[in-house]
Amino acid sequence: MTASFVQPRSRSVSFARSLVWILCGLIMLLEISFPTEYVFGHLYIAPLLLASFQLGKTGTSLVTRIAIFFTLSDLIIPNIASLRVMNFETLPIYTLTNRINVVVVLLLTSWLLQRNFKNAEKIDRQTEEIAHHKSELLLQLKLAQMREDFVHTLTHDLKTPILGAIETIKSFQAAQFGAICSLQSQVLTEMSKSQQRSLQLVQMLLDVYRNDAEGVVLQFQSIDLKAIAQDAIDTIAILALERELKLNLRCHKTLDRQLQITADPLQLSRVFSNLLSNAIYHSPRGSQIDVTIYSNDRRYIVQVSDRGRGIDPDDLPFLFNRFYQAHQQGQGSGLGLYLSRQIVEAHGGKIWADNELPQGTKFCFNLPIGI
Question: Whole-angstrom Cα distance, residue 60 to residue 40?
Answer without folding.
Answer: 19
